[in-house]
Amino acid sequence: MNVHVGLNVVDLEKSIVFYTKVFGEEPVKIKEDYAKYMPEDLSLNFTLNVKSQVSGNRVGHFGIQVENQEDINHHKQRLEKFGFFTRDEMNTNCCYAIQDKFWITDPDGNEWEFFYTKQDA
After folding, report:
1. First-to-last CA distance in the chain?
2. Which of 65, 93, 114, 116 is the most buried (most CB within 10 A)?
3. Where is the VOC domain (predicted)?
């Protein structure tokens, strides 16, 4: 599994320069409003998501990337047993990829997604 962090930024170019230095690697995907890092030595899927303005909390959401569809089903059923509300998104085009995912919300309102990436889009 990979931990996913989606960070809201206003200047993608400056953020790419900064995080390329932090991770010591170039992004694996760059679009007009998006960049994605998969640092080789970390189990991390880190994205930069451009917003027109950012104030206060700059975190858009957190996520856990799983290896296959069965993992999505397993974790959804496991968390529903705890009474966590889930919201499904199947075959959704997100972050320039086709994904199956579900969402839960922590007690402070932070959203977490569990997702499986099927293919780039």
Report:
1. 21
2. 114
3. 1-117
Answer yes or no: are the C-beta atoms of 78 and 37 closer than 8 Å.
Answer: no
- Residue 108 pLDDT > 80, yes or no? no
Q: State how far the Cα of 51 lies from the Cα of 99, in Å rounded to an integer.
A: 22
Cα dihedral 95, 36, 111, 117 in deg (nearest 10): 50
102-46-22 Cα angle (round to 5): 165
Q: What is the pTM of this model?
A: 0.72
The Cα–Cα gap between 80 and 99 comes to: 20
Tokens of 31: 């679009």
Q: Using one digit for the tens of pLDDT, what is the confidence trace for 28-67?
A: 999 999 999 999 988 999 999 998 988 777 788 888 999 9
If we measure between CA atoms, which residue out of 40, 33, 29, 37 comes closest to residue 13? 33
